[in-house]
Amino acid sequence: MRIQGIPSAMQAEKVASPRVEHKKARQGEDRGLDERIRQALERDQTIDITTIGRRSGQPRRIEMWFHNVDGDVYLTGTPGQRDWYANLVAHPSFTFHLKQSVVADLAAQATPVTDPTERRAILDHILHKLGHSNDLAAWLAGSPLVRVTFPDVNPCPG
Fold it and tell me: Which residues neighbour 52 within 8 Å (Cβ) at sequence distance 6 or greater?
């Protein structure tokens, strides 16, 4: 999914009311936060995610990096089995916690990337950016990779 939007901001009521002016002022504040979220999804790296344990059903929060590849957001890790990945395969809905340039908790959906050609292109981009291009074969063979989408994202105006 392209990051062409951001989580829904408070919208002014279509019916005039005494609170409309306050809501219009608030919308300006929300647009500022929304823009900071968009920038964080483009530039930040360290986040927390909260998944639901595949066996326990309990929330599990961990710190990790995310990667923005041409406007799409991905989670991956070094080769090996990862509990967070197994949790996301079992329960794809999770919380994406921004915590660097802005603090925000975003509802998110994970989709495993399993197509070999797509995995190669994405992991090659990520590893090149990290300076680890020579590790591509190992990452292709054993690294988890999920695409992250944000269901509460609205298209950008214009």
Answer: 58, 59, 60, 87, 90, 91, 93, 94
